[in-house]
Write a structure and sequence with these properties.
Elements (H helix, E strand, L loop, with lengths): L1 H21 L4 E8 L2 E5 L4 E4 L16 H4 L5 E4 L10 H4 L4 E4 L12 H7 L3 E7 L9 E7 L2 E5 L15 E6 L1 H9 L6 E6 L16 E3 L6 E5 L1
Parallel strand pairs: 3-4, 4-5, 8-9, 9-10, 10-11
Antiparallel strand pairs: 1-2, 1-12, 2-3, 6-7, 7-8
Bound molecules: zinc ion.
Length: about 230
């Protein structure tokens, strides 16, 4: 009986520690779906970036249909532009949730940015007009969430807005924003730089700094503790 009691005390201590290590608050989880597609959550708010897109469009990454089925209700969908490797008009019809993009989103689903920024504590979304070939409307975004700065470049190589933001935590961008920043001597001020929008069989060179991460593995989850 005594041993039993000791064990249950140990178990309680263990559960207590687990609660702090894996509790609902304390981290922003970001799943890389494919191309520039991300799913982000802090356990409360659910955000999709450049997803759903058309699987396999322009020979870029395909994904499982289960990704569409598992989209959380009342999510926020943020798009950088409407090219099919970033956006699917057909697939966005079904999941519930508001949409934010640089084009004229229908009133019924348009996300009210001001309302969102004022209603959710420790969250703000800022939009920047950036350029992208064959697209009249392209935006990049800065998400400030639990005091962490997450920059979404989308498909642009335009270093204008990103070069003015200091002390970011994670940047998600294509290789061309990184190479442009290097060439123009406007280094990206971020703890981590995630390079996405790679082809499924893309070969990655060597010799990159330690804070450069290449998203070659779909469904990889990164964590930003806060
Ligand atoms: Zn693209």
């Amino acid at each position: 009986m005594k041993i039993f009691k000791k064990q249950s005390v140990l178990l309680t201590v263990l559960l207590f520690c687990l609660h702090f290590a894996f509790g609902q608050t304390g981290e922003i989880k970001i799943k890389f779906i494919g191309n520039c597609g991300l799913y982000m959550t802090d356990g409360n708010l659910n955000i999709y970036v450049d997803f759903p897109y058309k699987s396999g469009a322009h020979h870029y990454m395909k994904y499982n249909k289960s990704e569409i089925d598992s989209i959380k209700d009342n999510s926020i969908f943020i798009f950088t532009h409407r090219h099919s490797d970033h956006y699917s008009r057909k697939l966005i019809r079904n999941p519930k949730g508001n949409i934010y993009g640089p084009w004229r989103v229908s009133k019924k689903r348009k996300l009210d940015l001001e309302k969102l920024n004022n209603s959710i504590n420790e969250f703000s979304l800022q939009s920047f007009k950036t350029s992208h070939i064959f697209s009249l409307h392209h935006s990049s975004y800065l998400i400030t969430w639990h005091n962490k700065k997450i920059f979404i470049s989308g498909d642009t190589g335009d270093v204008g807005p990103i070069s003015k933001i200091k002390n970011m935590d994670w940047v998600f961008g294509p290789f061309w924003i990184y190479s442009n920043a290097m060439q123009q001597k406007k280094p990206i001020d971020s703890k981590m730089i995630g390079i996405f929008h790679l082809y499924p069989d893309q070969k990655i060179g060597e010799g990159f700094p330690g804070n450069i991460h290449f998203f070659t593995q779909q469904n990889e989850v990164i964590s930003i503790p806060f």
